[in-house]
Each structure stands twice: as C-alpha cells, then as structure tokens.
C-alpha cells in the first residue's frame, strides 16, 4: 500500500464524511465507551457484506525520546510476531485464509492496525486483535530478525530515496525542539542499538484499551458489534498512562529567521522543498485560520487550473512539476509546504523566486471568487466520493480521534471550510507565509548509483 505524503491535499481527504452530531445510539456513527476505557465507534454501511476493523493507539513517534527513535514503528512490526495462542505469522495467515486484507501503519501521532474482510469474520478479527493487545510475546529471537527488516526499510525508503532524505533533513532543521523533528522510521544509529526491552517497555506503557479507539465500519449491527467488543476487548485491563508531567507538549520556540540547507544525494534532477510553520486545528467550532490555509493550498495546488501548475508549469515553464500542501489535522505543529523540480534550463533559485512571486501576488491581491468557489466545490465533491469507500470512512474517524479531535467534528470542519472568505485566505497567506517561519531545503543531485526518487513519505507501513 502506498504511504501518505505531506504533499497530498488533506482537505479533500479528511473532510469527505459528514457525521451526525448526536451522541444517542440512534446516531450513525454510534459511539460507546467500555468500562476499561476503550472507545468504540461503529459506522453502518450496508451496501456490501464487508467490514473494516481498525484499532488506533494514541501514540506515535512524537512520544519517543532520543536514543529510542523508531520504537513505535519497530513495535508495529513486532505486533505480528505472535502470542501464546497465535504463533508468529499465524495472524496474517488466518486473515488471508478467509479472503481478508490486513496491515498496519505508524505516524507521528498514532499507530493503527486494520483488517478488511467479510462481515461474518468480524469475530475472528476481534479475537486476534484483542489477543495481541494484551498478550503479545516479544522474544529476542524474533526481534533480532525483525529489526534487520526495519533497518532495510529505512535504507530503501529514506537513505536511498533522495527526496525522502531531503524531507527528513528539512524537518530535523525546521523543528528545533519539538519531537516532530525525529523521523517516524527512527535514526539508523538508534535502530542499530535498539533492544527488545525497548519494545516491551513501549508496549507496556502505551498498548492499553484506555489509550485506544476501535473503529468498525461496514455491514454490521451496532449492538452486535458492541456485544462482540465487550466479549473480546472487554477482557483487557486498563493501565495507568503517562501523565501530563511525562507527556509534555514540548512547544516549539519561535523561529527567528529563514533556515536553509542543501543535501547532496544521488539523483537525476534537483529538487526544492519549502516549509512554512503554520497552526493546526484544535478548536473546530471557533477557529478559522486552519480552514483558510486548507483553501489556500487548494487555490495553489490540487487541480490542473490551480495557480502553481498553470503559472509555473504550463505558462512560464519554470518547473517540470510544482505543488503545495497543508494538513490541519495533527497533534503537533503544522507546516505549509511547497515543492518542485525546475525545468532543464532553470535553476532552483529561479523556481524558489517564482513560488515566492505567486505567494506575494496572493498577499497583495488576494484570490478570485472563481478560485474560492472551485476549491469549495472540490471539498463538497470529496465529501460525496469518500462515502464510496468504507476504508476511507474508517480512516477519517480514526485520524480525527487520534489527533485529539472527535469524529463528530467532521461536519463542523466541512462547514468551516465552506464558510471561508476570500479575504481570510489572503490574511493567512500574509500572516504565515513569511521568512521568519520558513525552512528551505534543496537537493543537490550527485551522480546516480542506482537510487530512485519518490515523494517523501511521512508514514511507514509494515509491508
């Protein structure tokens, strides 16, 4: 499965599902809280006899400390290595035997596991997933093999991918103290010295029902799902979680000037990456700036007629490709990104200045009514399209919940985007797209040694 990039236009991904605002059992989705603290959210979708079963743990790489970076992702791998009841490899074998799909993913903010299968096999998926929530067996033998897989994943996805490497080093430069500066996959030196005990400690600390959200979407009856959840997950014991003193917010200090870095790596073409620090969404009901930033990203990118593609690729031919992106949904600080590859007869500096010129034009003159209407129409279209995918519905619910928001905020977010005015888009461009918030990273291509180039990944998958 392809991983998600910061350069996707998340406004069109995260806002596709309107959720009911009522807390009653008649609402769809249906929300329940077990005695052990596990939150269950069930979304009925009876169009096909399929069910999506997701368990989201509210812990990711931002909760790691120096010396053990990558442990959240390493444990994700180890979660498939068995329990007393389910030997290594048996979890995946059983899911595949009934025609199902399963995988897992780790991000800065959360770690999640899923199965997609026929609805009659939901009890099996719950039995397997709840078993490893409480009874995972971590052995030195299995860990010593799997950590080699993790290190190879880092080599293939970051060290040998020039754009991914550039992104990693850019983030480590942009953030001075916030744990977002550390890569999800972990630093290689930390992986080389990681112990199975690091994984055990992480599992004991964070993998508890009171730190998890179970999301079930599909052809199900909510009350039956609740009964199954109590039967399987209800056996897990709640555990004390790290308190406020141990889980400090680690607010990023103000940046006081532009940061620049150049990375040498084997590549065919140069590449430019620009990131402006920007806020993320914490109060969907009362904030408007994150919504305006989402609209701004849509004006600049996300469509053939968007400003950057039209002006810099098709008209001026400054760039082969150019884009912008922003995500309002995160536990930590956000960034507004620009990236691009200059045309053969153009330089990185010329591309940067051209992007800056497009920013200045919006700061000085704003956006048009037609541009605003187009982006809002895209948001509404995505709202409709996402209903076609049970998996996308489950992903949206889990992401909102894991970011400290609620699945009920989806309606509020959609309305917030639709309420954005053109002058607000101009205001956020003027306020946040400034040098004091900017980090610029450039890829200096070196002779190729077999490396390939892809967009940077921010989420690492098991497969």
UniProtKB/TrEMBL annotation:
Residues 42-185 form the Peptidase M16 N-terminal domain. The keyword Cytoplasm does not apply. Residues 200-378 form the Peptidase M16 C-terminal domain. Coiled coil: none annotated. GO terms for biological process: proteolysis. Residues 1-27 form the signal peptide. Keywords: Hydrolase, Protease, Signal. Pfam families: Peptidase_M16, Peptidase_M16_C. This is Zinc protease. GO terms for molecular function: metal ion binding; peptidase activity. Belongs to the peptidase M16 family.
């Amino acid at each position: 499965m392809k991983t998600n990039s910061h350069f996707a236009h998340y406004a069109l991904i995260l806002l596709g599902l309107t959720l009911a605002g009522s807390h009653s059992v008649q609402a769809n989705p249906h929300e329940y809280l077990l005695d052990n603290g596990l939150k269950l959210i069930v979304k009925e979708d009876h169009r096909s006899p399929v069910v999506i079963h997701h368990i989201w743990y509210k812990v990711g790489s931002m909760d790691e400390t120096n010396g053990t970076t990558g442990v959240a992702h390493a444990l994700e791998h180890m979660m498939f290595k068995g329990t007393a009841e389910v030997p290594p490899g048996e979890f995946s074998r059983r899911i595949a035997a009934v025609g199902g799909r399963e995988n897992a993913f780790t991000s800065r903010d959360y770690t999640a596991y899923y199965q997609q299968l026929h609805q009659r096999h939901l009890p099996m998926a719950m039995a397997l997933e709840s078993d490893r929530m409480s009874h995972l067996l971590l052995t030195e033998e299995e860990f010593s093999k799997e950590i080699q897989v993790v290190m190879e994943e880092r080599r293939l996805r970051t060290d040998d991918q020039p754009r991914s490497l550039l992104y990693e080093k850019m983030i480590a430069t942009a953030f001075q103290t916030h744990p977002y500066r550390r890569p999800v996959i972990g630093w290689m030196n930390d992986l080389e010295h990681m112990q199975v005990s690091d994984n055990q400690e992480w599992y004991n600390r964070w993998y508890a029902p009171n730190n998890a959200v179970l999301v079930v979407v599909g052809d199900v009856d909510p009350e039956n799902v609740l009964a199954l959840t109590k039967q399987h997950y209800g056996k897990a014991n709640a555990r004390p979680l790290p308190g406020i003193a141990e889980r400090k917010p680690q607010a990023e200090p103000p940046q006081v000037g532009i940061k620049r870095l150049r990375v040498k790596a084997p590549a065919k073409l140069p590449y430019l990456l620009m990131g402006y620090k920007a806020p993320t969404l914490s109060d969907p009901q009362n904030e408007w700036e994150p919504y305006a930033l989402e609209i701004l990203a849509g004006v600049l990118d996300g469509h053939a007629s968007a400003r950057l593609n039209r002006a810099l690729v098709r008209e001026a031919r400054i760039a082969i490709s150019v884009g912008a992106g922003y995500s309002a949904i995160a536990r930590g600080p956000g960034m507004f990104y620009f990236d691009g590859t200059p045309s053969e007869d153009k330089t990185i500096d010329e591309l940067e200045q051209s992007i800056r010129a497009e920013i200045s034009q919006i700061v000085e003159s704003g956006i048009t009514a037609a541009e605003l209407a187009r982006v809002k129409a895209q948001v509404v279209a995505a709202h409709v399209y996402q209903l076609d995918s049970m998996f996308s519905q489950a992903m949206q619910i889990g992401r909102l919940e894991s970011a400290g928001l609620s699945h009920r905020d989806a309606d509020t977010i959609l309305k917030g985007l639709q309420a954005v005015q053109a002058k607000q888009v101009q205001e956020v461009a003027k306020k946040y797209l400034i040098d004091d918030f900017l980090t610029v990273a450039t890829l200096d291509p070196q002779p190729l040694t077999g490396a390939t180039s892809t967009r940077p990944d921010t989420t690492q998958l098991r497969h």
